[in-house]
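User: Show me an example of a complex going from sequences to structure tokens.

Assistant: Sure. Here are the input components:
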Amino acid sequence: MLVKSQLKLIRSLQQKKYRNQHGLFFVEGKKTVEELLVSNLEPYKIYCSDAEAFEVSEGIVERVTSAELKQMSCLKNPPGVLGVFSFKKKSEIDFSDWMLALDDVRDPGNLGTIIRLCDWFGITTIICSKNTVDCYNPKVLQATMGSIARVNIHYTDLSNFLQDATIPIYGAFMNGASVYKANLPEKGILVMGNEGKGISKEIGELISQEISIPQFGNKTTESLNVATATAILLNEVRRD
Amino acid sequence: MLVKSQLKLIRSLQQKKYRNQHGLFFVEGKKTVEELLVSNLEPYKIYCSDAEAFEVSEGIVERVTSAELKQMSCLKNPPGVLGVFSFKKKSEIDFSDWMLALDDVRDPGNLGTIIRLCDWFGITTIICSKNTVDCYNPKVLQATMGSIARVNIHYTDLSNFLQDATIPIYGAFMNGASVYKANLPEKGILVMGNEGKGISKEIGELISQEISIPQFGNKTTESLNVATATAILLNEVRRD
């Protein structure tokens, strides 16, 4: 039986303010919990409503009822496992490879998909503007799966960061030059903008190369979603 | 004031069965409604709760209250405009260019994103297996925006369709050959599989070239989401 204070703590982690206060976040689902357990993330507590065993140190796993799990969960149909972990330790920013920078990406599903894409393409650093959605938001984590453990995400003043950067800065714009002809270098920063507004004027002024994904269909088509555009541009960064 | 039978009709269109029975579907939001109005789609009725005018023939636009609109809508916060349209007329399948085939894509958001991507890349034909989510599903339409008007979508027995096809058939597999080395032809069929299971065994046997998107990160990474994988592969199809 779960102590009331624990239940209250976990529920509070649905909010960014309390996640930051405690330095904790949670993920749901056995598969993701297992992936984080074998990563460099430090588990705080694993709550299980079913009989499945976890091979982790004593005291970490706690049996709870389905009703208790439901009270902690953000999901309508919570899976049988919820894992609470400490925030990743801050790492140095690695300027020896491409990195991604996000200028106010607000949709949790988009950020989650983008983290997963970075993991796929071996991009280990994401720099987020302070108004980008929190990477420990439960909806972000649902979309990232275990990738959160393998990508380093830094929240900072993006404008200051780019001003100090000494590697080339590329940005995705509707009217940029075709990425197919961009002759992308070995390392650089790729900036992606907000869902509705794109890259802000302030950040735009710091970008050395404006690139775009050529459009082949009817020109009335909306811009691509930021996650799908990121998929295409990261593929362009990595392909020969 | 809306007649009760009309309200009942629109509400019923949230279900595939009734959409097929009436040959009607609806979209929400002024921008999408306007995009469909200038397309080849035939409007049945436009419901507006606000004072904005639509330049369409008399009798098509009907003023309703916000409460009535809310009763018709699928959304928590319905926009002020809902448009009901007739299904697109069936067109001939165009074998002179690339087309996309979907083997049981079930998530409405994924199908919506894929339709929008096809529109972007000028892929005008999508062949869907019978178990692929219905393209007139309101959640699909939310993600496609106006693209539904510009892409022709056919539901058919995918296995029979591929058996009869005379252009090359490519399929996305985790262990396929790198798409970067695939030397893609001028025309072909790109098959994408179900979210959980990928391409089925039956369909897999009809595929001549198995391709994949190279993975650069940690090899424990999950596969890419079907919509982001489609984004990358359609980009590969269209780039020089």
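The lines above are the inputs; the final block is the predicted structure for all two components together. The longest strand of chain A covers residues 169-178.
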